[in-house]
Amino acid sequence: MKKIFGFMVLAIAIFALSSCGGGNTPSAVAEKAVKCIQAEDYEGYVNLMNIEVKEGEDIENAKTMLVALMKEKGGKSMKEKEGIKSYEILSEEIAEDGNSAVVKVKIVYGNGTEDEQKIKLVKDKDGEWKLSDAK
User: What are 102-108's contacts with CB under 8 Å, separation 24+?
Assistant: First the structure.
């Protein structure tokens, strides 16, 4: 009986770890982004973005400015909505060329309001999915 129980615990742990890893799919990146906002990890969120800078501009400076902007505006918005209570990935649509995607996410806030967000993603030069900064 102990062996069966031990095997079941191991199987559940392996399943949980594999489902949390997510890899680099559009849905996994969108989920990481929502978790960053939920945890007020704006630096982590910015690191998930595909940031394109003009020649001569400093990428690290651009990231620092984005983090500050998100702390100010995003923090205020999250405070008003009492944070993110839960979220659910509703759909993932990858473009035919395989270089862009849209992930639809349902977000439930602490104050009881709900919102559906479309998170746009693109593949960066290394082929990794990143949040698109395009509107």
Answer: 102/26, 103/26, 103/27, 103/29, 103/30, 105/30, 105/31, 105/34, 107/34, 108/84
User: Where do we find the tokens 């500050």?
Assistant: 68
What is the C-alpha to C-alpha distance for residues 97 and 127, in angstroms, rounded to an integer?
13
Mean pLDDT of 84-105: 96
Q: Please check whether residue 83 is in contact with residue 115, taking contact to mean a CB–CB distance below 8 angstroms.
A: no
Determine contact, residues 41/71, Cβ cutoff 8 Å. no
Rg (CA), the chain: 18
DSSP string for residues in the chain: -HHHHHHHHHHHHHHHHHHHH--S-HHHHHHHHHHHHHTT-HHHHHHTB-----TT--HHHHHHHHHHHHHHHHHHHHHHHTSEEEEEEEEEEE-TTSSEEEEEEEEEETTS-EEEEEEEEEE-TTS-EEE----
Summarize pLDDT for 32-70 with one digit per residue, the tens: 999 999 999 999 999 999 988 788 888 899 899 999 998
